[in-house]
Amino acid sequence: MGRGYKILLVLPFLLCSALPIQRDADKDTTAILQANYLYNIAKLVEWKDTAMRNGNFIIGVIGGANLYQELIKQYSTRTIGKQPIEVRKLPRTADVERCHILFVGREDLALLPEIYKRMQGQPTMVVTEYAGALEDGAVVNFVKVENLLKYELSLANAQKHGLVVGSTLKNLAHRVEE
Amino acid sequence: MNMAQRITITILWILTCMTMQAQGDPLVEALRKFQAGDLAGAKTLVDQAVRDPLHAEDPEAWLLRGFVYKDSFKDTKAGPEADLVRNEALASLYTCIGLDSAGTYRENAMQAYDYLARTFFNDAARAMQELQDERARALFDNYKEAILRLDPQANLRKREVEFLNALGTVYTKRFDQDRTVLNWFDKAVDTYRKVLSLDPENYGANYNLATLYYNRGVYNIQHITAEDDIPSIQRIQEVSREYFQEALPFMLKAHDMNPDRRETLLGLEIIYYSLQDQENSDRFRELFESLPPMEQD
Lengths: 178, 297
Description:
The complex is a heterodimer.
Chain A: H1 29-43, E1 45-47, E2 57-62, H2 65-75, E3 79-80, E4 83-89, E5 101-104, H3 112-119, E6 125-128, H4 133-136, E7 140-145, E8 148-154, H5 155-160, E9 163-165, H6 167-172, E10 175-177
Parallel strand pairs in A: 2-4, 2-5, 5-6, 6-7, 8-10
Antiparallel strand pairs in A: 1-9, 3-4, 7-8
Chain B: H1 3-21, H2 26-35, H3 39-51, H4 59-75, H5 80-99, H6 106-129, H7 133-150, H8 157-177, H9 182-198, H10 203-222, H11 230-257, H12 262-274, H13 278-290
């Protein structure tokens, strides 16, 4: 017989869910956005220090594990001008090596006072993600505005680090501190 | 007494009556063939019998035809032919019930009719598992039609909710296989929304709809590349924000229904995170982490 003779009960539909939500690194939307912002910001800033215009373009990351992964995945084969991008995951210490961009994630904010101190006058753009960062010394700070990730920047801090910020970057910022 | 026994007794009773009444009658011959397991022969004869004015209004004849076609359906491989045979069986049994003013055959006819109607539902479930959504829909419509034909007041809401939830899952799976085909996304959304219009408290539909919207928002952001400039990523974010905002009330509703479900706590943590609402994201993460560890099997 082609079918079972007795089907007395109605078979239930399997109640399965859509793909469940998970904390996957590749679904970290903030990390994806930050990585792209950093890449675009790097393209729109000029480092006056001639020593910084040679060799690799180094992006150092303290904390921000998913951001680091995203930078490696999407941007580590790219260049800024003629400089190949090199992404470095840095140890959680204020003793930071020289890099073009230094991102410090919110889980490592305690390191920042010392980092600001050590970076004074250095050609490094410090990028962070907490309220009041520009006042403390960051050049770029990621901010959350109306459920969107945007950035604010300090031209004064940029100047202190020998950075020339292009007009496009200024115009697209949520806030610019002169 | 089980169904098979009841059927046998009924058939014997019919046989006895008919044998006494009319030797050579196609209905009697059809019954003999049926009893002998010759379904093809029985079908030919019973079809002939119900066309005969002598039996056209005879509930016995239609009952036998219903049984013959029912068994024939069971012997036929699933597909269009089986569908036709099943429809004939159902139509015959329905006719029998309508003609049987004394109610003599009603119970047997109803049981067989109910069995066949359920096979529509079960086949719809099988089609669903094989991601044959169109066939599943058609079979489920047949199921509803069959049930309502016999009982116009039948409440099929629970079954419809169950079916639509499964259908939504099929559409979601199709969309997840290729997220550039937005038709599947739209169908999944429409289907889950239909579930919620029937049953606003349906946990699965609330959770799945939230997940669907969330994943769509994430997908847009995941496709940001180095070629996207800052205005582009801001536009992409705005589009994704709408999906995250759409997802939120459904996930909140699912959470309200089951406050200790890990999946909704995690869902809310991540939706708020994608909405750049760190405070609420952290709040739901803490709630998630405060749950006791899951039991190991």
